[in-house]
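Sanity check

After download, print the first record. It should look like this:
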Amino acid sequence: MRRAGVLGAAAVALALAVVVVLVVALRSDGRDSTTLRPLRARGALSDRIVLFGDTVRAQVEIALDLRQIDPDAVKVRASFGPWRGVQPARTARADAGSSSLLRVTYLLRCVKQPCVPERDTLPFDFDPARVEFVNRSGGRGSLNVEWPKLIVHSRLAAADLATAAPWRLDDATIPEPSYRISPSVLAALLAAGSLLLLGGAGLLAFAGWPRRELEPEPEREPEPELLLTPLEQALELLEHAQAANGAADQRRSLELVAEVLGERGEEDGLARSARELAWSPTAPHVDETRGLATRVRAALEEELRQLEEERRLEEERRRLAEEAHARVE
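Expected structure tokens:
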């Protein structure tokens, strides 16, 4: 019995020692910054010793009790000084029963002067990351997560400085190019702006182009006045003499008709009749003067008809002569 009691006491002492060692280990390695059961967190780096320009993956692992902590309300805030994120932070979540594991990963790189070692190495102590959470009961809490120390080595040794062009490019870790605006969207905007400028230039050119004034339509030339021959003027006066000044105008018109007919070589006939009426003892009757005017006009028309007939005969003779001449040739 005493032996069994001694063995039991040894087992209890051993179990207590294991618990104490685990607690001390968690507190001493800087990976767990809290002893709260609902949520625990630790920070880790993919590499503890790197070269200048290398990419480092920093990760915050958070273990929590889903019954007490809402995982969607857990926020991680971290700052890495001169080191900048190559891409946005990524969050992964894995659930198992009432437990959940959150992993927040940062991909870091530093190619600035503060990260260049002045000697062989340059140590970095990142500021602790801050984890903020909300209990199911509505209470808020937070804890700090310490990062391991990061050592940056120089890529150059003292002998390398004596050689030319010691740099080498590691294109595997170069990030993809980023744009403030998509190239296709920028091209579309530039094309639209060019079209707008072209249209504006066209409108300005159209507005400033000199206009050709329309010439006014020429005024119609007045119809030529028909100039009456002296005989026609005399006949007009003879036909309208009574309306003008009675017998006196009739006599003057008759005398004018007689003179014109005499100048045309028609002294006999119509010329004599006109002169007799002009010097008759009594005033010539209107019917007589009109009848004389009608005979004179008829004589003029007959004269014109004869002239037209002669002209037509002359043209016919000329045409026949030209045809005969053409047949002879």
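If your output differs, re-run the checksum step. Summary of this record's structure: The first strand starts at residue 39 and ends at 45.
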